[in-house]
Amino acid sequence: MGIDIKKMLADSLLKLCENKNLEALTIQDLLNDTGISRQTFYNHFIDKNDLIHYIYNTKIVPDFHYQNMTINFYESLLITFKNMQRYHHFMKQACMMEGQNCLKDYIFEHCKEFDLKWHQVLYGHKPMPDTLKFATEYHATASTSMTLSWILSDMPVSCEEIVKMIVEMRAIGMEVLFKDGEFQGNPYLKD
User: Fold this and answer.
1) Which residues, 6+ apart, have CB-to-CB distance to 19 below 8 Å?
2) How far apart, in whole angstroms, are the C-alpha atoms of residue 72 and residue 163?
3) pTM for this structure?
4) pLDDT averaged per 10 residues, the chain (length 191)
5) Are 33 and 15 in contact, with CB atoms under 8 Å apart?
6) How far apart are CA 26 and CA 49, in angstroms?
7) Could you give the CA distance from residue 22 to residue 25 in angstroms, rounded to a whole number?
8) What is the C-alpha to C-alpha distance for residues 147 and 135, in angstroms, rounded to an integer?
9) What span, in angstroms and rounded, lies between the C-alpha atoms of 169 and 1?
10) How is 98-143 classified by DSSP, letter by letter?
11) Taking CA atoms, which of 4, 8, 99, 109 is between 20 and 30 Å from 136?
């Protein structure tokens, strides 16, 4: 089995940001820690933010990807929040960074795009109604805002408590919005 360069760089960044501010951490710091060449880094990632997005996708939200449209939303979200808690130091620093391709903006877009795709798959082959699309985007934005607030305020409530609140809020009215789709019911109340 070959060396997983992406994982090696991700693990290095997570380790290094425990002792050095993530924003101040440089590509050279990662290269010094891993022994990987600059060219090899750029063969795998566009920049440090691309590596941060990779960590988010693989270590924080592993269930929320476009090939996984059969998720149990509550269970997958609980796993995500426990991962955020496990990597809190990284997540807080990454979410405080501003600028082009920052993680905070990436999370908003990823959540919205995933939710729209997931709801469309559940709704079926015909386009989902504008009301469902609006509700989906609204809940994705609200959930992301609450998640960022939870991370930046040092996670004042348990993972279980915040996930329960998010899922309960997302569930309101979904039976009505999905009534004309192939999926009948509420995707947030699935077993």
Assistant:
1) none
2) 13
3) 0.93
4) 88 96 96 97 97 97 85 94 97 95 96 96 95 97 97 97 96 95 88 54
5) yes
6) 11
7) 5
8) 18
9) 45
10) -STT-HHHHHHHHHHHHHHHHHHHHH-SSPPPHHHHHHHHHHHHHH
11) 99
